[in-house]
Amino acid sequence: MFKDVKAKDFLTIPNLLSVLRIILIPPFMYFFLEKNYIMSAVLLVISGLSDAFDGFIARTFNQVTALGKMLDPIADKLTLIAIMVCITIFSPIVLPVMVILIIKDVVMLIGGSRLIKKGIAPPAAKWYGKVSTFLFYVSVCLIVFLKAAFNYESDILSVSLLSVVCLFMIFALIKYFLIYNSLIKKVKE
After folding, report:
1. Whole-Å CA distances, 9 to 3, 5, 131
2. Catalytic site residues?
3. Torsion-angle region of residue 119: left (phi > 0), alpha (psi -120 to 50) or beta?
């Protein structure tokens, strides 16, 4: 799995941005659970922006690495899990939506690990994966912002926003599953 990772891969800007996203998770959770929603939102925005720029920088400056292909989705999933835990604590009514999102992510991680075991590099993130992550960040930031700035909580709004995110993530899962199947079929041929 790590045979394609080289020492120089660790010091690329995209990989450092992915590591930054992982480092931001504990302070994000701390501030969120301490109800310092402004600071937690700032950290989430920084995390989201670094996620948006790491892939762009990697492609633009030819810094795509095997390590980056592993770090980026790991940072995405860890951040997503941290946000889901915080939002579920914040608004327990969203738990069913979160369970669907967790199932989707576990399925994707299993599929990616099976590809790696077969010596196939998992595909790079596609537009639908990035859009679903973006929608997730926007929805969570909106939910937190309304609570922090206006002390406004609406379970209906939270479930509605996260349901849209969930539907788009399921769409992304189906699209990735089709890619996964075609890669597996090529290996069998």
Report:
1. 12, 7, 27
2. 76
3. left
C-alpha dist (Å) from residue 150 to 34, 37, 134, 155: 17, 12, 23, 15
Q: How far apart are CA 85 and CA 88, in angstroms?
A: 5
For residues 57 and 14, the answer to whether their CB atoms sit within 8 Å is yes
Query: Per CATH, the architecture of 7-188 is what?
Result: Up-down Bundle (1.20)
- Give the model confidence (pLDDT) of 31-63 as tens digits: 999 989 889 989 988 998 998 888 788 888 888
What type of residue is 11?
L
Three-state DSSP at 147 gives helix
pLDDT digits (tens, 9 = 90+) for 153-189: 888 898 899 889 889 988 988 998 899 888 888 877 6
